Structures are given as C-alpha cells and as structure tokens.
Amino acid sequence: MNCEDYPLLVEEYFDGDLDRDTALKVRHHLDECPSCAALLASLIAEQSVYANYTSDVEITPELWAGVRRRIEVERTSVERSGSWLRKVLALPPVSGPVAVGLVVLAVVSTVVVMRRISSTPPTNVSKRAVTEGTPQATPELRNEVAVVSPDTSEEPKSTKENVTRRDGLTIAAPVRRSPPPPKGDVLKTKDPRRLVLEAEQKYLAAIAMLSRSVDRKRSLLNPATKAKLEQALSSIDRTILATRKLVRRHPDDPVAAQYMLTAYAKKVDMLRELVDY
Amino acid sequence: MTNQVLVFTAVLFLVIPGISSLKSTFAQTTAASEDNQVSDRHYGRARINVERGIKITLGNRTTGRITVNGWDRDVIEAHALSERGDEVVIARFTDDSAGKKLFLKADYADLNKPVAPTTPLMSPPENSKGLKGLLKVHFEVNVPRYVEIDLIRVWYSDVQITGVQTAISVWGDQSSVILKRVGAVAARTRGGSVEVEDAEGLVSVNTTGGGVRVYRVQGNVSVVSISGPIEIKCVQGRVEVANTEASIDLADIDGEVKAAATNSSVRFTGGLRDDGRYDLKSMSGRVEMILPDNTKGFDASLSSYQGIIESDFKLKTTQPIIEGHHGRRMIGRFGNGKSQILLDSFDGLVRLSKVPPSKIEGCK
Q1: What DSSP designation does A134 have?
Q2: Residues of A numbered 140-179 whose beta carbons fall under 8 angstroms of chain B's beta carbons: which are they?
Q3: Residues 6 or more apart from B52 whose CB is under 8 A from it?
Q4: Shortest Cα–Cα distance, A123 to chain B (Å)
C-alpha cells in the first residue's frame, strides 16, 4: 500500500470500518507518517467536540420533577376518563319505552342531519350542472379566469396508451414515433451505491498500481519537482476526501458521484503523466 | 342495564351528527379563509382564458401521467381522466406581487354523487380490480406555447411535455420524462428514463439509473448518470456527459465534446467540425470514435495504459509512439489537423475507426 492511499483509509480506520489486517497496517503507518497522524488527530478532535456537546447538557432535579408531575397529570386524566364511562353506565334506571323513544329520536335526527350535510355542496365546488365528458357551454367569468365553450378544432392529440372507459369509449392516444429511451433495466437492479463503490475501487486499484511505478521514479526527481508533486497529489487527495464525504451524504446523487470519480480520474491522469515523465 | 345501553347508544347517535356538522362548518370556514384566490373544482374538462406572463403549476394527486401540449391559443384546457371516465380538475388562480399563477391538479371525482361529482374525496376510490389507491388519474393539459411552467415534482407520474417554448424543469423519482419541442430543459430522476427531442436551449439531465436519450438540441447539453445508458444525437452546442456504469453513445455533435465513463464504453459517431475538440475517456471501458472516411483532418492523442490502441487513419506522428510497459500513447496528425481528438482509456480498447459517409446516419 502506498502513502497516498492512507489518508483515504484513516477516516475508515477512525470509523472502525476496516478489517483487522488493514487496520493494523494503518496503525503502523500512523506511527511513521506525521500528516496521517495529524489527520487522525483532527478527526478525534472533531469527535470530541460533539461528544462534549452532548455531555454538557445537564438535566437538573427540577426538570426531572417537572417531567414526573406531567406524567402524573396524564395518568390521572386517563383514569378520570375511565371513571366517566363507569358513571354513564351507572345512570339511574330508565323505563323501556323511554329508552326506545330516545333511540328512535337519535336515529331520526342523525338521518336528517346527515342528509342535510350531503346535500350541501362544499364552498369551493363548482355548482354547474355537469354532463359526463361535456365541458361548459356557457362562458363563465371568475375574475380573470374565464371558462369558455369547447372548440375541438385545435385539440392536440392526447398521449401515450389509450384509456378505455367503462362505457366502452376509448380515449385517443398518440402514436409514439420514436422508440422508448434506453432503459438501464439490468443495471437499475444494482444499487447505485454499490456501482459507485465498485468504480471507486477500480480507481483505487489503478492509483495503487501507478503509485508503485511513480515511487520507483521518485528518487530520480529533483527536490523542487518532488515537492511540487507532493503538493499536487495532496491537493487532489483533499479533493478526493471532500468529494467522498459528499457521496456518503448523497449516495444516489449522480453529480456527487461524478465529482468524486473526476477527482480520482485526475489523480490517475497525474500519476500516468509521472510514469511517462 | 339494557335500557342504559340504549340510552348510551342514543347519546352516541346524537353526538355523531353533531361532530359531522362541526367538521363541515370548520371545512367551510377554512375554504372561505383561502378565498383570496379563485379556486374551483371542475368535473372532466376545464377551459381557462389566460394571457402572456402567466405561470402554471401542475400536479396530480395520483400516480397517473401528466401530459402537456402547447397550442396556439390563449386558453388552457385541462382534462383529468381515468379508467372510470372523467375525473376532477382543481384550478386555483392567484394574482399577487409574484405575478399571475394558475395551479392545476388532477383529483378523483366522487362518482357516488352524480349531482356533485366534484366533492372532494378523503380517501382514494377503488380501481376496476377493486384495489384502493391504485386508480390512476391521467392529467392532460393544453397550454399556450408561451406559458411558463413551474418545476414539475413527481414521484411515479410519467411526464410528457410537447410544443412549449419555455424552459421546462421536471424532478421525478421513477417517472419517465418525455420532453419534445421545448425550450431549455432541466430534468432529474432516480430510476425513470428521460427523453428530450428538439429542445432549443440548454439541456441538463441528471439521473441515477434511468436511461437518457437526447435528440436535436440547439443549445448545450449536460448529462450525468450513474447507471443509465446515455444516447445523445444531433446537438449544435457543446456536450458534456459522464457516466459510471452504463454506455455513452454520441453522434453528430457540432460543438465541443467531453465524455467520461468509469466502467463503461464511450462512442462517438459523426463528422468533425473544424477547430472542434473531442475528449472521450473511460477508466476501464472501450473508447471509440467513428469518423467518415472523407474527414478533412485532425490532431489526435490516443492512449491506453493497459489496453490496445487501434486507428484506421494513418496518423503522421508528431511524437514517437510510446509502446511499452507503462502504457501506449499515439499522438499524430491526419490531414489539415484542424480538429483535436483525445481518446483515452486506462485498461480498455481505444479505437479510431473510419467508415464510408453513407454509413453515418446524420441528422434529418
């Protein structure tokens, strides 16, 4: 594994996402590499900020007492509602004819009220008499919105598949002139996150391979070129790290994935240039 | 005890209509409070006179399709329909500091009330198979060509817009989007395919897994996908396209071309424009450029780190061909050298092909 690969792994090491062997390698590398150690330190610092943030919130005894009081109040109200039902059922006995009369009265009043409700149209419902499939014949102005009589002379054709109605009428559908766009059906079944991860692995493998070749040439470079190279590579690595975070946050976003893969591609391009140098 | 139960039942019967009345009164109050807008529910087809400057917002309560057709009339006609026949169109007009807006939405009709089918339904009706919530109401809207359309946000509703001169934005999830004879386009889907034909402005498409087909565009085109195949033909502007897992197929592009793939192939077919630039790359896929044999000329850089390079054109190499352990690279000129071609793959085949002009489809 090359030095350039480690910054990418340090974050996963910190998250505990690495397998045992890789984690061990990263740990050894951290002992030797100050920049990777610094990266880990910054991750730890960031984590501790959040950890302290939560532990600073202290729950006072007054708050707990308040919570208990509210629980008690809610419990009492539930018990009260139960006792109300018991009281209703414990009403003094009523004679049979009176009870039957009350039921009849209630049913009649219910029917009357429900009929009234259903016969009243809602406020924002059109009051026009409607014939099925026939639009309004009389223009009806509502402020600047006018409903006008139909004119089918310029009607564009409707689209897609026909709709067959229950009355047997088939609603016109357009002829699709061009074939449907290519469907990624086979690939669609694959999780995009997995596809992006696989693509990332390909780039990492290429970077690892190219880095080995570059390492062999590194000793031939003069110090100034070497410094520029290190600077350029670490700049790309920062971009890769940033875009990886973006992809983690938005795993289905093709644009985020493209940013990350472009950053990897840049690194591959640079390493290839160095190999040919 | 029996009498007590009867009394209790009577009380319940009295309470239910009371609650219903209250609910109805509340609903009416709410509707009245929103009445600074002109709002209406139309059964079947609604026709609305409009003028320039109006903006419309389209929606569908169901997953039925939304179809918009542009026409040469100052009238908007909206029709909601399903397998049951006509359904309801909600039309709400607002005119405030933001301008004139018309909100149009397809909704279910209440067919149990033939006198008032526009009554709002709280829960969806059953479809012909007796399944609730699966009845699709399709929404067909004819609009003046000049009308501005707000972002159409859908999940499963397919969207088709034809003959509208203004810019169109659609965000869909699994929806397929078809846009023909429109202005600029911005489309975003997760799994749905996108087809754009005869667009006048910039076309920008982002999709996670849907296929993309773009034909005949006067402006620039930008397409990004993860796993949807991309096909772009007959574009007058610049094309910038990227894909991770599925193919990129380009043909007859007048402007500059920049295409990048990771695990898939990139192919360009068509003639070259003088001083045009063509940059096709793939990490591990095949990269191929198919040119007519009467091509006037170009400068080309063909490279592959682990793959093979092939060229049907005899290039006059300006630099020695690198052919060794560390990849292959061929840089050379053909003819007048006015166009610039850069083909590259890390471990795939890189090929520059020559075919008779008759084999190239062209844009008609």
Answers
A1: B
A2: 142-150, 154-160, 163-167, 169, 171, 178
A3: B144, B146
A4: 6
End-to-end CA distance of chain B: 88
Q: What number is the ipTM of this complex?
A: 0.74
B2-33 and A96-119 are packed helices; what angle lies between their axes, rounded to 10 degrees? 20
Name residue, tokens 């682990």: B306
Distance CA B17, CA A115 (A): 10
Residue in A closest to B249 by C-alpha: A182
* Positions of E strands within A148-195: 163-164, 170-171
Write the pLDDT tens digit of every residue in B123-173: 888 888 888 778 999 999 999 999 999 999 999 999 999 999 999 999 999
DSSP assignment string, B79-143: EEEETTEE-EEEEEEEEETTEEEEEEEEE---TT-TT-TTSPPSSPPB-TTS-BT-PPPEEEEEE
Dist CA B75 CA B92 (whole Å) = 15
By Cβ distance, the residue of B20, B226, B347 closest to A114 is B20
Q: How many CB atoms lie within 10 A of CB B22?
A: 10
Q: Which of B26, B83, B207, B244 to mutate to test the interface with A (most CBs of A within 10 A)?
A: B244
Alpha-carbon distance of B238 to A48, in angstroms, equals: 48
Greatest Cα-to-Cα distance within chain B, rounded to the nearest angstrom: 108
Single pTM value for the model = 0.65
B-chain residue closest to A262, CA distance: B260
